Design the sequence.
């Protein structure tokens, strides 16, 4: 699958680490990245995924009760809100 990059931001460090563990355990494709300052000026981590993989990743997170607080679509250096329900 492919497509644009999606950044998933979680409400706490605990949630992001739990999400990382879950996705690694399931062998799902993602990258742990710093939260872009354009999205949130506070330090933290986020999950980066290819938009085409959302059908694998979002259901796994939801089933584990790990819903992201927000999501953004990256287009170069620009970020736009991305709806979590699709």
Sequence:
């Amino acid at each position: 699958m492919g497509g644009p990059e999606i950044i998933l931001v979680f409400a706490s460090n605990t949630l992001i680490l739990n999400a990382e563990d879950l996705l690694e355990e399931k062998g799902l494709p993602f990258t742990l990245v710093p939260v872009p300052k354009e999205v949130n000026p506070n330090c933290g981590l986020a999950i980066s995924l290819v938009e085409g993989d959302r059908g694998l990743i979002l259901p796994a997170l939801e089933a584990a009760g790990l819903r992201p607080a927000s999501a953004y679509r990256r287009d170069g250096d620009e970020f736009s809100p991305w709806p979590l329900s699709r």
